[in-house]
Input
Amino acid sequence: MGGASRVLNTALRSKIMSASEAASLIPSGVNVGMSGFTGAGYPKEVPTELAKRIMDANLHGRKFKIGVWTGASTAPELDGALAMVDGVEMRLPYQSDPTCRKRINAGEMEYIDIHLSHVAQFVWFGFLGKLDVAVVEVSGILEDGRLIPSSSIGNNKTWLDQADKIILEVNSWQNPLLEGMHDIYYGTNLPPHRQPIPLVRTGDRIGEPYFKIDPNKVIAVVETSSPDRNSAFSAPDHNSRDIAGHILEFLEHEVKKGRLPKDLLPLQSGVGNIANAVLAGLNDGPFENLTAYTEVLQDGMLEMIKSGKLSMASATAFSLSPSALTELNADLARFKDSIILRPQEISNHPEVIRRLGVIAMNGMIEADIYGNVNSTHVMGTQIMNGIGGSGDFARNAYISIFMTPSQAKGGQISCIVPMASHVDHTEHDVQVLVTEQGLADLRGLSPKQRAKVIIENCAHPNFKPLLMDYYKRSLNLSPGKQTPHLLDEALSWHLNYLRKGSM
Output
């Protein structure tokens, strides 16, 4: 891509400088709102140059740390580079970088894990403190100073509105056909002045295709030409295909029962191999004219748009493998009318999710026998990535589905446990659990009824007798019989793994 300058506004052209010069305008101790959502639309050069400045400060014995706020996870040039030089004091709301994760779990970086729908409003409310600088990638600047968004929107509207100072990276690698694909809603307000969000169908456009900014806040414009970086997805394995099969069978059953329309309801899907296997199954399945109201558009949804199965997808970002991203950019005109990118405060808004009746499908680390789900912490204390938007969707979905293989680490860990070692989604928000072993429909069941169905349908055969033994003994020995537990044993499986390497 590349070519002529995409900075068409004269005043902002006068602020073009190198990434190094722009990075020098960010002092230690500030909060920086950066663009980026699942490896799409993040600034490519300023964070890397900032990391060099921080490393230089470290070498001279000066502490240099900043707060980093994003849409969600980013990429090595941002999270990885800044974490490597220990340059992040506080990170929010979601990350997936290995170096970042290591520092968080070592207690070297503070981390706040927030529902993605909460971030923008928490900043507007003043709950998170002052936002000093916004570093936002865009794909162009119009003559009148409006900004053409990039391959993700995330929290960029809020960063641009709320930050005292703005640094723009104008990335000419981004496809010019992205222009017009975005829908930036400027109708939100603070309580008590809020109005209903006028979005009643997945494909509704309720905003504008561009960001509006105060040009006087812009302190630097950096021209770049660098690709987004996303990881390739591995092909669906046997477990993923089995999980997908159980979900498809369930959806067909719901249609037959009259609880879902024949073209279903808008789909939301987390990122990953299992999610893509479910989407591949839907692509081959009997449902037509499907829609998606979700956070990210991933490979499986792109395939469904190509086949005609998916007529409209609303998201806040792309999360595509390198090969799928190449295909999208090569033929974006073909996909453009079927995709809308929105701010994450709208893509994840509880009001809209509830109104549209979204079918939410998200991954988990573990679930307990009563249906509480842990989607963030390994063995209760070590963060993996974060809750992301799964809670936004699970609590407000028409149907809330969580999925995982039944065991991990070569069979040393059961993903169905007596008590979840950390709870992100309580039993009240979880309606369906799925593993390769089967599906547990928990709707209308009491805790004890749930336990039987989860153990029977979802647990691996190697762990099923142990879980049933725990449950039966807890029925007799637990002081309370509503949600029976043996509190001296409830987390013993996790302790066994930590001490012996096997549950």
User: Anything to note?
Assistant: The longest helix spans residues 238-256. The chain has a mean pLDDT of 96. Residues 225 and 315 are 24 Å apart (CA to CA).
